[in-house]
């Protein structure tokens, strides 16, 4: 493992020239996005179309499903350029086991789970591998739109006594389920990512930023309480 890679890696050929460890580390990041972008579109966005209460909201749900599948295809292109193994040989993250059963549920996945994706993608916007860095930068406007839609809709739903408690319960469940999204506190993978300049932040630093932003949404914007979670996580995900 190098001290810390400080130069740009502009192509798949140069990534392979750096050696197997760099390509393997990149592969773990890219294939995770290949899996999870498709999973989010399939289990969150597609079901929401039938749950949406108005034609405009159905249109928005369709748009976000289309964009998430588009992200999947773009990450998959990077995977193919690097010659990575099949991304679907591993399951998506456990947060995608969440069952969306109402429009409020869906709104909160956008406000919370997509916010976790932004935190991770912001870090990759400084990645040493230029194709991954440029892709993440190009996708940020769509990701921010998804989170903005979720937060704006959540404010409206939380202001309605009929849906306020549903907003709260969905938010608590999703925040608790998303904490492992960032990986173990003692992750060897994360050490390698940072040594190769693929990531800058530790898993705990990313998790703390997610907690800070979701706390601001729930407590400051929506006037709700926040679930008890910790910035450290010692589960099995690396």
From TrEMBL:
<dbReference type="InterPro" id="IPR012347">
    <property type="entry name" value="Ferritin-like"/>
</dbReference>
<dbReference type="Pfam" id="PF05138">
    <property type="entry name" value="PaaA_PaaC"/>
</dbReference>
<protein>
    <recommendedName>
        <fullName>Phenylacetic acid catabolic family protein</fullName>
    </recommendedName>
</protein>
<dbReference type="InterPro" id="IPR007814">
    <property type="entry name" value="PaaA_PaaC"/>
</dbReference>
<dbReference type="InterPro" id="IPR052703">
    <property type="entry name" value="Aromatic_CoA_ox/epox"/>
</dbReference>
<dbReference type="InterPro" id="IPR009078">
    <property type="entry name" value="Ferritin-like_SF"/>
</dbReference>
<dbReference type="GO" id="GO:0010124">
    <property type="term" value="P:phenylacetate catabolic process"/>
</dbReference>
<dbReference type="GO" id="GO:0005829">
    <property type="term" value="C:cytosol"/>
</dbReference>
